[in-house]
Amino acid sequence: MPEREYGFDEEVATETREKLKKPPLYRVLLHNDDYTTMEFVIYVLETVFQKTDADAFRIMMAVHTQGVGVAGVYTYEVAEMKVERVTHLARAGEYPLLCTLEEEPQGD
Q: Which of 76, 64, 88 is nearest to 28 (CA)?
């Protein structure tokens, strides 16, 4: 077996790390209408978004008084899944509740 020579090279080994960019986040919005009950909106916030009673009530009141409320902020795939789940529940309950998503502004 040949013998290896271990010497010191003039080169310096450097390790470069690629910085990973955080994925964009999306807001899931609930929109006010004249037919969906406040109780149903609270139910959706508690079951789909796992909000506490107090948080669900606060968000529901924002939807009721301001016309729109932020149910949560998620990655695109999760936000899209939540929108589909809310829409399915609303249609099953015969409510016209509108749930949409929009990109969260970047705070760089």
A: 76
What DSSP line would sit under 18-35, residue for residue?
PPPPPPPEEEEEEE--SS
C-alpha torsion sign, points 33, 37, 43, 46? positive
pTM value > 0.70: yes
- Please tell me the distance from the alpha carbon of residue 28 to that of residue 80, in angstroms, as a whole number: 8
Distance from C-alpha of 99 to C-alpha of 43, rounded to nearest angstrom: 14
In 3-state terms the chain splits into helix, strand, coil percentages (rounded to 5) of 40, 20, 45
CA 4 to chain centre: 56
pLDDT above 70 (res 44):
yes
**Exposed (0-12), middle (13-18) or buried (19+): which is 30, by Cβ within 10 Å?**
buried
SS3 98: strand
